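Predict the 3D structure for this chain.
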Amino acid sequence: MPLENLIPLSPYLRQAPRELDPQESFAALVSWLRELIVEKKAPGFIVALSGTDSILTFLACAKAFAAEGRPERVLGIHYGAPFPPPQKTSEEIAKLISLTPGYRWVARIVMPWLREQALGAQLRVESDIDYTDDYQRWAALFRSSLNGAFSTEPLTAGDNYWVVGTRNATEEALFSYSNFSNTVSVQPILHLWKSEVLKICAALGVPDFALAQSRQVDCDCGRFDLAASHIDEVDAVLMARSGLLSRAYLHQHMAPELLRKLEAFVEEQIASARFKKEIPYIPPADTVKEA
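Done. Predicted structure below.
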């Protein structure tokens, strides 16, 4: 399968959002990644694990390398508190979970599930950094991608990984991604809207708690109250704004006040973050003056 055949965005105006086949879309993603591994001689993939975008990305990467007979060349790292917490009794842990169902949910729920789904892949939880700090998480991820490499020697294929991004089409359209994400080597789900990511995750059996967390407010991810509550509707507004969906669909499926709020949110977000498509700023060649 040619690389450009990975679920391309529709080039024509639609009267309704596209209906993708979750299983076929995931299979196409795995096929594309497998082809990329072979064509570019990718040494391995490393993914930072947090929510549904990274879960889907990791699963696709793991399946692709497993198909090549090298499942161990995919490494998923969750930067957060481990589970179970040390120095706590089972009774104390049970009480914590009953009071706070989201207690350490990635390490507690997602990581064990991924270990069952991606046999042979590497998975670990790292808590030796300030995992609430985006700068430290990215630095740690890139440091781990050079596992076994010496700064004064060339990299060897067996010792390093390509850092894989988890940006989706919604984040791409809103510019709601970290500047650091522009430094990754692969962006597998860039053509999938957030609502589509959730559909594929649901079809793959991703734990319900992880799906529900995608609809929770997370300001660090650029997901505020309005956007968290209306993922499908935000995607539809972005599709219409990008010329991929008729505006008539928006008026037919959304109350006028909600549509007004969503469009205002989208415009404000894009206006504040559009610069991300322009950086780095580079001066023209004529700023170099010959003597």
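Residues 251 and 259 are 8 Å apart (CA to CA).
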